[in-house]
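Name: Acylphosphatase
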Amino acid sequence: MVRMKRVTLKISGVVQGVAFRYHAVAEARRLGVTGWVRNVSDGTVMALAEGESAAVDAFMGWCRIGPPMAKVDGVKVTTSSFGGEFEGFDVIG
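Structure predicted for Acylphosphatase:
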């Protein structure tokens, strides 16, 4: 039985203006993770990711590093109940 997982991530550091969201979309789609990513007015990036537990864990690992121009200082993870309402992974807002 495949375990499904849903997390909300708040990524801090140099994560805006470095194409973090667009690289996150590509990585999530590659892993088969669904949800969204957006910039927040406080300079962080927020993402909601769900899918198979191993894929979501891999996406969280990628978010701790980010794309080449980013400098991730931290990732706050909040776990919630799997919803299954997303069909893809997109930039919102």
